[in-house]
């Protein structure tokens, strides 16, 4: 369990450091949509990275920060490094989107591209941090990172407390966002003695269903890691990650969406709401549009908007009608 003191501390620590992103209500569809594509660096990842970096001692910052990223977390850590005066090295897959790699470098991070997928980058980053006595800043396997991600839910509850009894759809890969949001919701429910707490559903792509397998089968054996529009939701979960028991305890279910459903959601977000979102951020909306979730009201977390421009253009042209 993430201590409630950590959750409240993260809110105070990030006040003024991150954007309070827009929350819109689509009354016709019963949808509350949190647009984290409008967050600093274009995704929610800045929250957890900044929260963790701001807890470090001066001597830890001097050791430098090392992480692995599909692109968004690396941008968050790079931003945090600039804020606290720490060097940042990010390990990423050589197949990571150029828009994300370039953004990490523009924020001052050194980026090392690794053969293979996200899991290979994570292994390389962990090994480097250990060899060089640097501070490893996990995208998800860290209590302060999880608490920082949970501030997404805190903001929503402050603006619309009625969502404490809604269904929440949250993208999941390593589980930092899902664990953080579910921790905040369960803590809120306990503090307010709610009879009908929120229903929390993780949404993952079928192409890389590692957390889905851990949730239902207790292992990641034989899970495929295929190319996907939702590049930020790929890769195996670090063994022993704190997110695994948190998600098993506090999350109601995890569902899968297809590549076609993700692409349709990206196009829908642009045509209906005028929002440019990436595949990873579109999975919750995909679950609604595909009819896999029909409960209302529903809170959808759009986790990011850092999509390769030509991919976004191609998707819009495919679904222009």
From TrEMBL:
Can you supply a Gene Ontology BP term from the record? Answer: L-threonine catabolic process
Start and end of every Tryptophan synthase beta chain-like PALP domain?
23-304
What is the name attached to this protein's record? Answer: threonine ammonia-lyase
Q: Which UniProt keywords apply?
A: Lyase, Pyridoxal phosphate
Catalytic activity reported: L-threonine = 2-oxobutanoate + NH4(+)
Tell me which family the UniProt entry assigns to this protein: Belongs to the serine/threonine dehydratase family.
**What's the top EC group for this one?**
lyase
Q: Which InterPro entries match?
A: Ser/Thr_Dehydratase (IPR050147), Ser/Thr_deHydtase_PyrdxlP-BS (IPR000634), TrpB-like_PALP (IPR001926), TrpB-like_PALP_sf (IPR036052)
